[in-house]
Amino acid sequence: MSRAAELTGVPSGTLRKWEQRYGVVAPQRSPGNYRLYDDEAVRRLSVMRSLVDNGWSAHEAARHVVHDAASAEADIPRPELPSTDSRVDELARCAADFDLPRLEKVLAEAFSDDLVAAVDEWLLPSLVRLGKGWQRGELTVAGEHFVTAAVHRRLAHTFQSLPTAYDGPRVVVGLARGAHHELGVLAFALVLRSRGVAVTYLGGDLPLEAWMSTVRLIDPAAVVLAAPTIEDLPAVREAAEALMPLTAVLLGGAHQAEVDGPEHLGHRAGAAAAALADQLV
């Protein structure tokens, strides 16, 4: 239980109350009668904590988490990303009617100019609008996936087309185990590489052991992680704790403020990547 308390930031006594009174989790027992919390239980407890921290009663938060933890997370406020870009609703419109020609045109135009502005003024605010449209039931899951898959392809293609820096400091970018929302970190890696930094991009859902072995082998100047969702927080805390003795750890994502230790990058990924590149190159 003590490890679950560390990963969720919830005191052991509160964890026991949430388990016994509300049935939020049902941990297994070790031969010595110790509670054993699996990854799913820790994620549920993290969502429960965030709901309570945002003013929900424990009873109401538990009811939502037990019914559907992922849907409960959608009720937690996210940092707003203001934008004056007139195209900020385009991704949601493309998702509504699966308009592939329009989507391809928007993506081609968006990444043809300044990448920092494209990421901060258009891409990230557009993705927030897209996610809210899905949460409100205005867009289908298929429509949301249709758009995010196209965005991922465009970011990956643009990243791969940039010249590779073989000299100088290297930065490793990716997500902790269980985390799959990688568009933000991929956009960060893209801007970083465009500024001449040697970037090793590892993608999403990387086990802690793989993070450790990679960092020991490469010995990077920094590691960049993200906490895109509440459910990612336990694994992010675990990864940051393990990696900080080895190298500098920087953290982005909507829920970065809930992880102590790493340097927080803020919510403008493009500007943060450009600033890091200025420090390193």
Question: What would you say this structure looks like, in words?
Answer:
- With about 280 residues, the protein is of the alpha/beta class.
- It has helices at about 1-10, 10-20, 40-55, 60-65, 70-75, 90-95, 100-110, 115-135, 140-160, 185-195, 210-220, 235-245, 270-280, and strands spanning about 30, 35, 170-175, 200-205, 220-225, 250, 265.
- It has a 5-stranded parallel β-sheet, with helices on both faces.
- α6 (about 90-95) packs across α9.
Largest sheet: 5 strands, parallel
Low-confidence stretches: none
Content-based structural category: alpha/beta
Strand order of the largest sheet: 4-3-5-6-7
Number of domains: 3
What is the β-strand count? Answer: 7
Shape category: globular
Q: Report the portion of residues in β strands.
A: 5-15%
* Topology pattern, helix = H, strand = E: HHEEHHHHHHHEHEHEHEEH
User: Which topology of the largest domain does CATH recognise?
Assistant: Rossmann fold
- What separation lies between the terminal Cα atoms? 44 Å
The CATH fourth-level homologous superfamily of the largest domain: Cobalamin-binding domain
Q: Radius of gyration over alpha carbons? A: 20 Å
Tell me roughly what share of residues is in helical segments: 55-70%
Q: Which CATH first-tier class of the largest domain would you pick?
A: Alpha Beta
The number of helical runs is 13
CATH architectural category of the largest domain: 3-Layer(aba) Sandwich
Mean pLDDT across the residues is: 87
